[in-house]
Amino acid sequence: MKKTLLDISSKKTCGCSGNKLNCMDAKSWIKCQLGVWQFNYEKRDIRDKELHPATFPISLAKKVIELFTHEGELVIDPFNGSGTTLVASQDLNRNAVGFDINKEYCELSESRIHKMLLDWSKQITINDDARNVPLYFEDEVISLALTSPPYANLLNRQRLNKSRRGTDRLNAQFMKVEQYSQNKNDLGVLSIDDFEIAIFEIYSNLFPAIKPNGHIVINVADMWWEGSRIPIHIYIIRALEKAGFIFKNTIIWDRTNIVNGIGIFGWPSNYITMGTTFEYILDFYKPCTQI
User: Fold this and answer.
1) Is 166 inside a domain boundary?
2) What percentage of the chain carries pLDDT values higher than 70?
3) Contact 73, 12 (CB under 8 A)
4) Which domain holds residue 141?
């Protein structure tokens, strides 16, 4: 397919020199060295599952963007959803493009971006399949690809709220199917094995557009499916490594500060650690020479 290149800059606009990774001072850098991170939601965050079933906080996106980019550089989100990556990029003066196959999510994303008189950076939402992302960029222009992808078909079922206590289970999400869409091209309708293949294809095609030493950061949680633990993070690691990226860091998003009560799931005979209390933030980078 023919490329349709976007009119968006990828050049840093800060005063940082040399080979520095970002604009951080030493104090901020030290805080990122801890392998367990916590975040809080703010009023601008999307918490309504009727709008989007799975979002991460703006504060998470901002920390990742600050760590792996300079001001003015280009950030993308291949599974943009509600547009959190774009909101964080605007706050931090980074250029950003978010892609989503769902038109309604694109409209939600656009509504969250403030149109300013002076555009120090640009944020764009595009209604397109993640498989087509490379068609919009020249080679070696993207500094960071940050996303939280669909969890294969593991959300495509009625929610039983087993992690909640008593009548708390009977909330607005009880027995609802919290799926992104039923589009045949949506990764959220694929089996876990087909999901791994699709992730490989998407990031393999994206590889040329990432700058050397540019980063891929993926937020994901493991899931339970028909009595078995599905280690989604392992499927993603395998796919990204096969696509040519180097797996560098695992950061744990400790969600205990934002979880509203945990039920006695599995008690008293089947011990299970709840995925609601933590998620993975997986960090990969593109080597200077392809492996």
Assistant:
1) no
2) 80
3) yes
4) 34-150+191-260+271-285
